[in-house]
Amino acid sequence: MIPRPIKRLFHQVSLGDQDYRFMFEAGPPDEVVALDCETTGLDIRHDRIVTIAAIKIRGDRILTSERFEVVVRPEARMSVDSIRVHRLREMDVAAGARIQKIIPEFLHFIGGRPLVGYYLEFDVRMLDKEVLPLIQIELPNPMIEVSKLYYERKYGDAPPGTTVDLSFASILRDLDLPVLEQHDAFNDALMAAMMYVRLRDMKQRGVRIPREGQSVRPQATIG
Amino acid sequence: MPNSFDPQNPPFDRLTPQEMEALRQALDIGYFRPGQTILGQQAAADSLFIVIKGAVEERDADELIALLGPKDSFDSHALVQGQSRHAFVAREETLCYLLPRDVALNLIKANPRFGAFFYLDLSRKLDAMARDEEDSRIGTLMRARIADMPLSPAAFIDAADTIETAGHTMSQIDSNALFVRDGDRVGIVTGMNLSKATVLQRKPIDTPIGTICHYDVISLRPDDFVYSALILMTKTNKRRIAIHDGTHYVGILDDIGLLGFLAGNAQLVAGRIERAAGLSDLTVAAREIGEQVRILRRQGLKVEVIAEIISDLNRRLFAKLFDMVAPPEIRGAACLAVMGSEGRGEQTLRTDQDNALILAHPVEAAILDRFRADFTTALEGFGFEPCPGNVMVRNPIWSQTVDEYGTMFRRWVALPEPETHMDVAILYDAVAVAGNAQLLADVKAGLVEAVRGRSAFMVHFARATEAFPMPIGFFNNLLTPDGKGDAVDLKKGGIFPIVHGIRSMALERGLAETNTAQRIQRIVEAGTFSRDFGRDLTQALYLLMTFRLDAQLAAAGAATALVRPDMLSSTQRDVLREALGVVKQLRDIVRRHFNLGAF
Fold first, then answer.
1. Burial class of A152 by CB neighbour count within 10 A (0 to 12, 13 to 18, 19+)
2. Is A215 among the domain residues?
């Protein structure tokens, strides 16, 4: 796979629609966008986006009052399994807009701002699938992975062999953040946003997250 | 649109669904690092802050005023007046909802019930809260269960027993109804059944009860709701319901008991005291006084009104007791006084009793001792807790002649000891309840005279206002790992500083009033306090007394003054914070007035 920074240079040239040149310009200073997508599944090739939520963060302020939140109208029928996960039925998404109409609005919303999320790579690749046919580029935005920020704060100095837990629930617990109902794109994006402001502050102040009782806890045997 | 914003958190629960939606649409979320000033002192705020997670210190310059936790909001002053009174600083990592000022002001304007919580003066805020409480109290009444009510005892007689036996049994157990056992059947016989049988039907008094009682007994369980008893009585036109716990009959509920439970019967207690023929009658009345507090509070009476009613009943009780046990030598030449909170008319649930006897002239030791013993025994029989400081008639220093009291005061003022100040405080709050009231007036005039101009004494006296630290830890229910929150002693932290600070200023002026609100009124009239501050101070006192009383009632009558912040709504914590802010202002005034800092 080609590294993103190189892709970015390439895309700057390949950009199909010059109206989107702003995507390559740095966004307003100290602004990022927390992002989450709900999808029909985890297969990037075959699954598709159901909802997109993005929330701007300016400094330490999470601008929930200026959010981007859309439901995508599906091109094909939805599987029962995916309906179970995100609880959006066909009738709920029927009122949504087609993805081709949503992507331009989304791109204008995020601009060149860095994107923040939990396992963001997946969301971005899902979005790239829709962006590429439209303007012949993948998202050029810098990406900030909250689980990575968390890893640095908690396990950055851990001795080899430490069991690493980067689960969403553990991060919420360690950062003492409110647990919102999950599998709702807006809530997931909001929780990622709160993780980000908190972790960024801890990094600036040089505060680490203690690892519980550094001793090895007995693990349940498998099998 | 944070849909996680809790619409039930007062005062936001007063918003309509549309208003709540508008609020949610406008919310942002702010993150604040430890030590970061969220809102500076005397700063304008562009938002109302509602804490999601974390803890926020409210500070007046260097002084910590309060700690705010989740669901607490700030600062209505900055929002409405454009200037905060205090600074707000994050104590730990803190997340807050930020509600833009213009949106908040629009909601305040559009919804008066919501807006009431942003009034700037405590009094109006409290009125708004009281209206809410009323609704919840009716709710409480509707949820009361039969087990919470006083029941007539479940006494059984046999169907073969006579009318005469039934009459005697009723009289002995002071109940107007008995269960009648007839094999497997159970019936109820009432005093009215006995009367009808003997008077109207002229049956002989050796008639078996089984022939005149009713077997169509209706029953409920102790865990049934009180209102279901009311409905059942209405439907069946019965005046009594048998209470059965599944295995046994545990009591009988009658219509008078039910109405008394719903409405209270303070006037009946007063009558009972008046008519009391002996100590046993007074003992019943004394117990009933205690029960009135709960009933009156449930009816929604304000704490100051309850205190007034209860003080009146207690004083009648003392007066009647004095009449009963005082021999003529004492009755004609003495004054019985109640002191402390009872003297100020601020006692609700009985905590302790401070009382004293003032004699016009020396009384023979044997007579006096006998009276003191009788009086003390009677009070113990009433279930009165003895005063921990032994400030009671039974203590010789609290039953002396006017002259002896005078000598004692001069010694107190010249050579004060720590407890001396408390003794002066207790006596200064005294009110005569029986005997010659002029004697107490003379003693108190002597006390005022003894301390007049003794500024060193007054400084030490007033210093007790600062004896206990401000309960600032109150609002932080986060810092306790067990999640229970810190219980806070409202008596030490709020009620006592007001009572004693005002008492100090009143004593200095030699005011005759004993009630704290009346003393405040006089101090306002003298121009020392502004009218507004006097009103806020009185409201703060009543608010603290109310919270304390409710905590005591919830703790089943324990003398606790501890209030758990996690038991309060965020609005209650908010007004409590303001009340404690008023207490702090008074402490500052007292400190300056008596120049406490200089000693």
1. middle
2. no
Q: What would the pLDDT profile of B134-169 be if each residue is shown by its tens digit?
A: 555 555 566 678 887 778 888 999 999 999 999 999
The verdict on residue A210 lying in a domain is no
In terms of residues, how long is chain A? Answer: 223
- The answer to whether the complex's ipTM is over 0.85 is no
CA dist., res. B327 & res. B375, Å (int): 11
Q: DSSP of B100-167, one letter per residue? A: EHHHHHHHHHH-HHHHGGG-SSHHHHHHHHHHHHHHHHHHHHHH-BGGGS--B---EEETTSBHHHHH
A32 sits in which H/E element = strand A31-39
| CB pair distance less than 8 Å for A64 and B27 | yes
A176 and B53: CB-CB below 8 Å? Answer: yes
| Architecture per CATH, B264-452 | 2-Layer Sandwich (3.30)
- The predicted pLDDT at position B384 comes to 80
Q: In what order do the strands lie in the sheet with B56-60?
A: B37-39, B87-90, B56-60, B63-68
A64 and B31: CB-CB below 8 Å?
no
Specify whether the CB–CB gap between A126 and A99 falls below 8 A: no
Which residue matches tokens 């997340």?
B95
Residue A190 located in a structural domain: yes
pLDDT tens for B90-101 read 988 999 999 999
Q: Which fold has domain B12-120?
A: Jelly Rolls (2.60.120)
Name the token pair of A194: 């709160």
Evaluate whether B148 touches B243 at the Cβ level (below 8 Å).
no
List the domain range (segments joined by +) for residue A61.
4-205
Instruction: Please count the residue pairs, one from chain A and one from chain B, whose beta carbons lie less than 8 angstroms apart.
Output: 54
β-strand partners of B220: B243
Q: Which of B93, B96, B98, B103 to mutate to test the interface with A (most CBs of A within 10 A)?
A: B93
What pLDDT is attached to residue A221? 38
Token pair recorded at residue A166: 């980067």
Using CB atoms within 10 Å of the CB of residue A156, give its burial: 0 to 12 exposed, 13 to 18 middle, 19+ buried: exposed
Q: Which amino acid is at A157?
A: D
> Phi/psi zone of residue B107: left (φ > 0), alpha (ψ -120 to 50 degrees), beta?
alpha
Q: Is residue A48 part of a domain?
A: yes
Determine the residue of chain A that is closest to B24 in CA distance. A65
Across all residues in chain B, what is the average pLDDT?
Answer: 84
Query: Based on the structure, what is the number of domains in chain A?
Result: 1
B31 chain-A contacts, CB cut-off 8 A: 60-62, 194, 197-198, 201
Task: Characterize the bridge pairing of strands B219-220 and B240-244.
Answer: parallel
Length of chain B: 599
Cα–Cα dist B319/A162, whole Å: 78
Nearest chain B residue to A184 by CA: give it.
Answer: B3
Distance from CA of B101 to the nearest CA of A (A): 14
First to last CA, chain A: 36
Cβ B28–A61 below 8 Å, yes or no?
Answer: yes
Domain range summary for chain B, segments of one domain joined by +: 12-120, 264-452, 463-598
Domain of A159, CATH number, reads 3.30.420.10
Distances (CA, A) of A97 to A100, A126, B35, B357: 8, 17, 46, 88
Confidence of residue B444 (pLDDT cuts 50, 70, 90): very high
Q: Do A60 and B31 touch (CB under 8 A)?
A: yes
Partner B contacted by A30 (CB < 8 A): no
**In chain A, alpha helices (H):** 4-14, 80-86, 90-94, 99-110, 120-135, 146-155, 168-174, 185-205
Instruction: Collapse the DSSP code of A10 into the 3-class scheme (helix H, G, I; strand E, B; otherwise coil) and give the result.
Output: helix
Q: Facing residues of B49 across strands?
A: B74, B98
Segment B97-126 shows an average pLDDT of 83
CA of B96: which chain A residue's CA is closest? Answer: A61
Neighbour-count burial of A205, counting CB atoms closer than 10 A to its CB (0-12 exposed, 13-18 middle, 19+ buried): exposed
Instruction: Say which residue, B173 or B485, is predicted with more confidence.
Output: B173
